[in-house]
Each structure stands twice: as structure tokens, then as C-alpha cells.
Amino acid sequence: MARSKSQFAGFPLGLFHFLEELSRNNHKPWFDANKERYERDVRTPALAFITAMERPLRAISPHFTAVPKKVGGSLMRIHRDVRFGKDKTPYKTNVGIQFRHESGKDVHCPGFYVHIALDECFLGAGIWRPCTPTLTAIRERIDEEPSRWKRARDGKRFREVWAPSGDSLKRPPRGYDAEHPMIEDLKRKDHIAVADLDHDDLMATDVVDRIADAFKRSKAYTTLRVHFRGLPRPPTVRAESARRSTRQRIFGSLPREPPPGFREPAPRLVTPTATLAVPPAPRLRSKQDTNNTMAKKKPAAGKMVYYFGKTKTEGDGSMKTLIGGKGANLAEMTSIGLPVPAGFTITTECCALYNKAGGKLPKGLMDEVGAAVKTLEKEAGKKFGDTKNPLLMSVRSGAAVSMPGMMNTILNLGLNDESVAGLANATGNERFAYDAYRRLINMYGDVVMEVHHEYFEEAFSKIKTKYGAAEDNDVPTKGLIELCDAYKKVYKKHTKQDFPQDPLKQLALAVEAVFKSWMSDKAISYRRIEGITGLAGTAVNVQSMVFGNMGDDSGTGVAFTRNPSTGENKFYGEFLVNAQGEDVVAGIRTPQPVAEMPKWKCDADKTIGKKVHAELMKIKTKLEKHYKDVQDIEFTIEKGKLYMLQTRNGKRTGMAAVRIACEMVKEKLISEKTGVMRVPAGDLTQLLLPSFDPAAKKKASALTIGLPASPGAAFGKLAFTAEEAVERSHNGEQVLLVRKETSPEDVDGMHSAAGILTSTGGMTSHAAVVARGWGKCCVAGAGEIQIDEKGKKIKVGGKTYGVKDVLSIDGSTGEVFAGEMPTVSPKLSGNFATVMGWADKYRKLGVRTNADSPADSKRARDFGAEGIGLCRTEHMFFEGDRILAMREMILAEDKSAREKALKKLLPFQRKDFEGIFKAMKGLPVTVRLLDPPLHEFVPHDAKSQKELSAATGVPAKEIAARVSQLHEANPMLGHRGCRLSITYPEILVMQVTAITEAAISCVKKKIDAKPEIMIPLVGTVKELALLRELAEETIKKVKAAKKHTGKLDILIGTMIEIPRAALTADEVATEADFFSFGTNDLTQMTFGYSRDDVNGFLPDYIGQEILEKDPFQSIDTSGVGQLVETAVSKGQSVNKKIKLGICGEHGGDPASIQFCHEVGLNYVSCSPFRVPIARLAAAQAALSQA
Question: Which residues belong to any copy of the Pyruvate phosphate dikinase AMP/ATP-binding domain (predicted)?
Fold first, then answer.
């Protein structure tokens, strides 16, 4: 079978362990204590499986649904209904997933079912326990069309996998004779079929393909029951007369062989929703799948360790979910012949099991590890812990998703007081041996035993002072021997135990440390910020050590196959001579560029740099051709020999992503479509980032210049800790996070800060990598800056700056300036236009903008907007003298006075609209009539009211009384939107007049104008009908007054922002030319959340997983989205030509745009700077469903 196209790589072993333990502890206290396990090992993978099944189900029929919701979707609740039975155990000990027909609301509707339990796993198809009317209808159709029924029931392809099952009546149903030839089918109470599964099937990487294949085989059986029930059918089901001649249409597209792993099931009675009895912990079966000849390796059930090396390689690049990204790529690099130190990977499932078991390694893990160590010893020709020639190991983490710097690493594992002497003798380099040993004690104490790094640094500082060493490498061998003793004393002081001398104990505790680090605060913060969910844990990668710190002919480095900041196709990276890998990424020493490597010479080999650089360039080309993407690599040179330690898809800035996509398409490495999908839509924001004003920058003098680690321009007051940056930014201050070097503990502060400035570290340091990934401005390695973190001040250029001082940093040049420097908008490259051209080629959705001024309109048009989806007229009233006329209108006591004030506003509005129409050059402009409540336009303090009184002649007391009268307890649900036009129709008349006059004026000047009038906050069709009539009358009058006889089409529609309007959209659509979904208000009214106050509790809701994300940032597809879908369906049912769009800020959110594409909207509208994001996201939405 071909490798699965699905991203879902099988259910985890942890799911079965959870069900087994639940069967023995079926009570609420145990479940509550293990809720995290349930989420991680049961619900999250089940929802991922449901998501992966969406496309296969659509291929069978568009009417079967896969709904990946925690509640109310395809995943059945784990809670049992205990009200009416004797069994009061509260939880089901099986997982049930049902893909229902869209007409069904419960389990008693046609569909497909997946049942996962310890003793029995199976698939179901058909209808379980249909209601009486449905059962009656099915029986009638069986009686009328027996041959059709039998063909579906007895089809060869169907019966190879499926067997009819379920309960039957003992006697014939009423009205049917016992001798009826179809009596056994007529007696059925359930019309279901089942197919057996086992645990291996469910844990297989191609489980989605297997199950989809089985469901396809049951297509005729299941869809015939749908048809007999009188529900919509898939397009392939034809009338009986057509089916007789084209039977092959149903079965011809099905596979010729049974799917791997499925056995011929014996007919049996099964109740799909029953809670099955659970035996003691099962022995999971390992099965040889003789039908499967996949190109990639299939993970073995229960296997915990995967080896890679010259002797054998058990994993590959497709197994990232199981063995992590690092482990998968190490195996893949080994397979394609790159020089990779041999090693093995412990699976992510072991991490999940460890954390679930409260910190206990899975049973049998260390036995498998021991066997892998023996294989590694044979390949290396060394012994682990040997006193003569010891094999040393590195222990690194590696989750399925790259998380740079988030997990802990331990090097030189296996050294002890005896083997360090053996290493010195074997290498002939005593200094190297003790340098490796001191590093191990430090890392092991920090990572495994949580002894703070600073305690070791203090001991090292004393040794350096004693020997007059400025740098680590200057410390002599004698000093390193003393340092090892000092480190062991630090270790014992803070742990109350000696440093472990048993290498296997070191390894076991190191594995545990990596597992623990998965749940560390820094790792959790990074996953939260990056939105990484659904992972079981981290894998552990154990490799034989290669040493970059063996002298001047050794080194280590980190590189990207292309520049991650600019995208230039130039090998880009840094290396350190006589150093270990962590020295580069930790930013403790400033490294040299890889481009300088050919100049590297040593006494033993004058051409070492040229040879290593040439080999790296060959590997760079090979990796890009293999992975077809930019690679982030780590390497070590040991005595002139190059080793590859890691490769992964490189994180890059938005600018780099665009350039790389364009150039890889030109190089024919990838297609245009792949190029579109390679650029994260949200990252385009980085291309639109401001830079410093060149004129101001020319006049300024840089305090210092560091490394341009992440582009952009930022300024702010100085914050010296992550906690301080978070707190001050939350209080509204703009801050720069200033650190010597950042670490994973700083991620929250880095995320909150406007920019990051470090005094050490290079272009691949932690600060640089994380900042680039977030599009955050960063200057690293500004070595002239002296940072006093405790005193909260810095010294540079002879001056001191503190927490109240502002600095500006340029992440594109590395420059640092005093004070706040003005910024300018960016200029976009030709590559940007190319990617946008591709996006426009493949997208289906139109993209408009939200703009209410000619300047914004032009800017949006330059960004590719195809019109204005929301022009807010209220913003126009606040400029200059307009607000006075607006307030006069509000204070007016009668219609005549209001009209007099509105006449003053009319010219302003007309001029604004004419400017916007001119800027948009014939593109549609949707003008929303006045929406906010009137109290927003009046002054609320006594001083301002007196000033208004002086300007209008209205007594201040009357103004205060009117302001009080306008006050509402809940103005967002009060007198606003269309309600203003109902009570004050003259407002609508003035605005429609201005729109129409502006359009006519443009036409006379030969400027094409396409205005659309949008009536806001409609809740009933009568509101819209009344106001539409008034608008049409006004347009007619204006055209007559202006003697305009030419064509002037002005569409009139409404915003759907009240749930009632969505629910009655079939009525509203009779009076609307278009719907525009105002999802800001629709979200507010659906949830009952005030947009202005939601931040008081929303973080807690997201933190406690009540909500997955902020519904005002990304559309709530299961709630608000359902209203949108309902409105689309109902609106189109009565008005086929109705235009459909969205104009809330959701229109610029990539996830929301995906939803808009799926529900069939015509366009999205967003702020000008988000237009490019929307264009790209719309193309990605279209391609994802292609």
C-alpha cells in the first residue's frame, strides 16, 4: 500500500493504556486526576483522526460529516448516562466515533462508526436502532426493491470486509408474511454491518487510508439505506433504471484487494454504543502485514527504541509523530548516505507514558535501550563507560514539531572519574578529556538535578581568575582538573549526593530529564505561543559523541542552506573552532561566519577549512534536493572529519519565505502551488513591517552595531527581565527586552517586548532564532554594550541608560540608537508581487478592504484589494468642524433642526465618498450607514459641554440633559444601526444623498463608481424592507434632481451581525442584494461577550481550555460559524444571485479565511495591511481542498 497522504499517523499506544486503567478505576476522582492523559492520549488523537477523515468522507458522499469538536461533534462523549441503569460507573471504557449523515442529530441516523476498546475494535456502517418511521420506510423499500437491496447487501467487494450485524425481531413485523423471501431483512431492528479491526490496525501510520478504504467498500450498502430513508444521496447513486446498466459506477472505483489488516469478519451481534467489559491489561498483538509493501517503514506495535547507523536504520523521515522531527531526520540522513554519528531514538509515546505514570519509565524501555547500546558499541568499536576507550553519548530531545531551544540537552554522557582518564589516554589530549567531563557535570547538574547554572559559573569564574584566563579556552589542563573537582562539590552541595559514576544510571536519568522537560514552564510557554497542540511528547535521541572541542582541527557549527532572514540562496551560518555544539546556540561565544571557514587553518592541516567547507556545500545541495526546502543543520568537525548532527526545515522570516519560494520554483525544486503553500500567510505581516525613516537615520549616530538577527524596526523603554517585560507591556508600555543572552525561560518576555537586544550571541543564537520565527525585531551580539541586569542599566558609548530611557534598534542592520526614531512603511519586492500573482491565480475568494478615507483606499488598492467591503461613515464625522455639525444634529429638538444640521454634513460626506470612489477606480465600495449610538458623538465632561454650548448657543444644562438622555445601560445592543434610521430617517436620507451625488459626480468626470449601500444591525426583514424603500426613493430623487439619465446601479444589502438575522436569512434575503457578515458583533452577540470587557476573563478561558482561541481573533466555526453557514444556505435558497462577504477583522485571519472559503462566501474584507495576508490565505484555502 502507498504511504498515507494523511497527516494522522495512527492512534497512540497510550490510548489503550488509558482505557485499561480506566476499566480498573472507573470513578470521578481517578478520571479528574488523569484528565490531562485523557486529553492527550484519547481526545486529541481522536479529533485529529476525525479531521483527517473529512476528505475521504467527502469522496464517498458530501452528506456524511466529520466534525472535530470536543463536544457535539463526531467524537462520542466518554460520560455514560447512569440515570436509568443499574451500572453507575460514570465513564465508557471505549472510544466511539460516528460520522453521521448531515440530517441526523444523534446515533440513530445513517453513517459510519469506529469503535475502539481493549477487547474489541471494529467499524460499523449503516443505521443503528432507527426510529419507527425510518424503519417502516426501509422495510417498505426492501419489499418494493428486493433485488437492489440484495445487490448492496451481498456485493463481493462489500462482503470481503463487512458482515451484516445487529438485532432482529423474533417474529415477522406487522403486515409481512413469515414466508416473505426477504423476511430476515424485514425482521431487522438494526441495519448495520461490521468490520473487525485490531490494535495494530489502529496504531498503523496508514490507519486513515485503511478505514477510508473499508468505508468506500460499504458505500452502496450505507448510501442505499440513506436513499431508502428518503435523505440526500451522493452523486454516484442513480435511479434504479440507470443503476441496472451502470452497476460498475458504484463498485468500479473501489480497490481490487482487501485493505491491509482487515480480516473476513464473522457475523455477530454487536451494539455499537455498548460499554464492553474490559479484561486485564491486554497483550497487544504484533502482526505481519503481508499485503503491505509500503516504500517507507511501518512502526512496529509496542516498539520503543529505533536504531540508526551503518549496520541498520529502523526509522525514516515519515515517522516524525513517533520518533520526533530530529529522530526522523537523523534516520533519513543516515539512509541517504550522509555522515551521521550512529545512535537510537526513544519514541514520543514513551514520553507520554512517563508523564502519565507520574514520572516512571515505561516497563521494558531500559531493556530495549540496553540492546541498542550494545549495537552502538559494536558499530563504534568502543564500550560505554570503558576505562580505556569509552563510548560517550549525547542525549537530546526532539518533538514532532521543531521547538528551538525549548528542550534540554546533555553531552559527554558516560564519563566518570575513571573513564575520563581513559578518554585522555585514548585521544592523547588530557585537556580535552577534562573539558568534556566538566561540561557533563555542569549540564547533568543543571538539566537532571536542577542545580542552577549560575552555581557552576561561579566556580568557573574562580578558576579563570586563579589562572588569569579571559576565555574558557584559556584555562589550562590543570585548571580544568581542579574545575571538575569544584563542580562535583557544587553538585553534592545542592543535591546532597555524589555525581553518579554508573554510566547506565546517567543515561536513565538523562532520558527522564528530557521527558520531564516536555512539561517545563518554558516548553509549555513556547507551545502556547506557537499554538502547538496535539503532540504526545518529545522523543529522546541518543547518539555516539563526536567532539568539536578536541583542538584547533575540530569545531562545531549551525547553518542554513539559505539565508533565513533574507532568503538569499547563499550558505549561511556560523561555526566555532574547538567548541561543542551548545556553545554556538547558547550565544556564550560569538562565532565566525561559515563563509570564513575556507580561511580556517591549523598546524595539523593547513587546508582543513577549505575541505570541510567544500563537503558542507555538497551536503547543502543534497539536502535541499532531498527535502525540497531550506534546511537548518547542525554539524561537528572532529579532527578534520565532518559529521551531521541534525537537519530540519529552517525557520525563516516572512521576507525570506517569499524569496525562497520564488527562487525554488525558478530552480524547479517545487511547483507554484507548493510555493504558495510554503509562505505562512500570517508571516507576510513581516514584509509590511516599518523601518526607520532614512532621513532621520542619516542624521542620527548609532550607539553601537550588533548583528542584524531579525528584521524590522522597534523602539521602547528598557526592560531587563522577561517578567518585567511582560508586566510593563501589559500595562501599556512599549519595551525592549535587553539581555546578555536570552534563554528558553525568556520566551514570554520576548513575545511581549517590541524588540530584543542582546550583548552576546550570534545570528543562530536563541534570541535570533525565536525572534525570526515570530517576526520580532532583534539585534544580537552587540558586544560593546555592558549590561548590568541587577542594577537595571546598560553602558554604551560612555553613557548609561536605564528603565526610563528609550532606545531604537534596527533588526535589518544591527544598529542601536538613543531615543525614539520615526519609522516609514516598507517597499515590497518583486518576489512579493510574484507570490501575490500566484495567490491570485489560485484563490477563489475575492479580497476587499475596510477603509473610510481616500488614503486608506489607495493603500489597500496598492496591496491588491478588489474593492471596499466596509466603509465606516461614522469615522468621517469626527474630523475638523464636522463633529460640531454632527452634535448640532444630535441636540436638535425636531426634524427640521436635524435636517438643517445634516445639510452642513452633506458636503463633507459627498467629498469623502467622491475621493474614495476615485481612489478605487471602478471597484465596488460598500458604504455602511451610520452605526454607533449617538452618545459616542457628544461630550461627556462639563468643560467640553460648556465649549459646545458656546459654539452652538444651546445652554449647557440642556446639553447635559440630552447627553444623559442618550445614555444607555448597554449601548452596543441599544439605539444604533438601522434603529437610528428608523427613528431618524433624515440621517439615512442625507447619507444616501451624499453617496448618490458623489457617484453621479464621478460618472460625469468619467470615473467609474460602484457604490453599495449597507444597512447595519438588521434583525428583521421589515426593518430592511422599510429602509430599502426609503433609500431607493432617495436615489431616485437625487438622480432626478441631478438630471442623471445614465446607468447608475447601486446595490442595497445588509450586515448580518445579529443571530436572528442569520436564522431568518431566507426572509432577509428577499430584500437584500448582498449579505456582509459583521463577525465582530455577531461573535459578541452569539457568545454574549462584550468586546470591550472580554480581556478580563478571556485569558483564563483559553488557559483552562474552555475556549481554544480568542473568538474575536479567529472565527468560532462551531458556533458563530454555524450561524454564518445557516445564513448562507438560507439566503441562497431564495436569492441565487445574492453576494456574500465578511467584513469583520476575521476577514484577515488565515484560519477564518479557510472557513469562509469552505462555506462559499464570495469575498472577505479586512484592514489594508492585512489584504496581502488575505489574498495568500485565500489561495491556500483553495489549494488545500484541490
Answer: 321-357, 360-594, 608-668
Q: What is the pLDDT of residue 825?
A: 72
Active-site residue flag, 766: yes
The answer for residues whose C-beta is within 8 angstroms of residue 758's C-beta and 6 or more apart is 587, 706, 738, 739, 740, 741, 742, 765, 767, 778, 779, 780, 781, 782
E-assigned strands of 684-768? 691-692, 704-705, 707-710, 713-719, 735-739, 755-758
**CATH class of the structural domain 417-499:** mainly alpha
- One-letter amino acid for residue 1100 of the chain: D
pLDDT digits (tens, 9 = 90+) for 156-214: 888 888 888 888 888 888 778 888 888 888 888 888 889 988 888 898 888 998 999 89
Alpha helices in 543-688 (DSSP H): 582-585, 608-627, 654-666, 672-678, 684-687
- CATH number, domain 303-413+501-545: 3.30.1490.20
Write out the residue limits of the CATH 1.20.80.30 domain(s) in the chain. Answer: 417-499
Question: Using one digit for the tens of pLDDT, what is the confidence trace for 630-677?
Answer: 999 999 999 999 999 999 999 888 889 999 999 999 999 999 999 999
Question: Is the confidence at residue 561, as pLDDT, over 90?
Answer: yes
**Given pLDDT bands bounded at 50, 70 and 90, which one contains residue 382?**
very high
Closest CA to 165 of 271, 268, 266, 265: 268
What pLDDT, on the 0 to 100 scale, is given for residue 792? Answer: 94
Q: What is the pLDDT of residue 773?
A: 63
Instruction: Give ranges for CATH 3.20.20.60 in the chain.
Output: 843-933+968-1184
381 and 552 in contact (C-beta within 8 Å)?
A: no
Distance CA 1078, CA 1057 (A): 5
AA identity, residue 540: V
Out of 279-283, 384-388, 1014-1018, pick the least confident: 279-283
Give the end-to-end CA distance of the chain in Å, rounded to a whole number. 23
Q: How many C-beta atoms surround the C-beta of residue 119 within 10 A?
A: 13
Span 13-251 CATH architecture:
2-Layer Sandwich (3.30)
Whether 1143 is a known active-site residue: answer yes
Q: Is 1103 exposed, middle or buried (0-12, 13-18, 19+ CB in 10 A)?
A: exposed
Delimiting residues of CATH 3.30.1490.20 domain(s) in the chain? 303-413+501-545
**Residue-wise pLDDT tens digits, 1084-1123:** 999 999 877 776 788 788 777 788 888 988 999 999 999 9
The average confidence (pLDDT) of the chain is 85
Which of 274-283, 365-374, 517-526 has the lowest average pLDDT?
274-283
Q: What is the CATH number of domain 843-933+968-1184?
A: 3.20.20.60
d(CA 548, CA 578) in angstroms, rounded, equals 5
Q: Of 464, 666, 435, give the one whose Cα is nearest residue 567.
A: 666
Cell numbers standing for residue 287: 502482526
Beta partners for 96? Answer: 115
DSSP state, 322?
A: H
CA 866/CA 925 separation, integer angstroms: 9
**Rounded Cα gap, residues 1088 and 1085, in angstroms:** 5
- Residue 674, Cα to own-chain centre: how many angstroms? 18
Residue owning grid cell 517585560: 725
CATH of domain 555-649: 3.30.470.20
**Residue intervals in the chain for CATH 3.50.30.10:** 691-824
Size of the chain in residues: 1186
Domain with CATH 3.30.470.20 in the chain: 555-649
Distance of CA 1184 to the CA centre of its chain: 15
Residue 845 or 109, more confident: 845
CATH number of 691-824: 3.50.30.10
Catalytic member of 63, 101, 766, 935: 766
C-beta of residue 166 within 8 angstroms of C-beta of residue 192? yes
As beta bridge partners, residue 738 has 757
Q: Which residue spans of the chain are classified as CATH 3.30.930?
A: 13-251
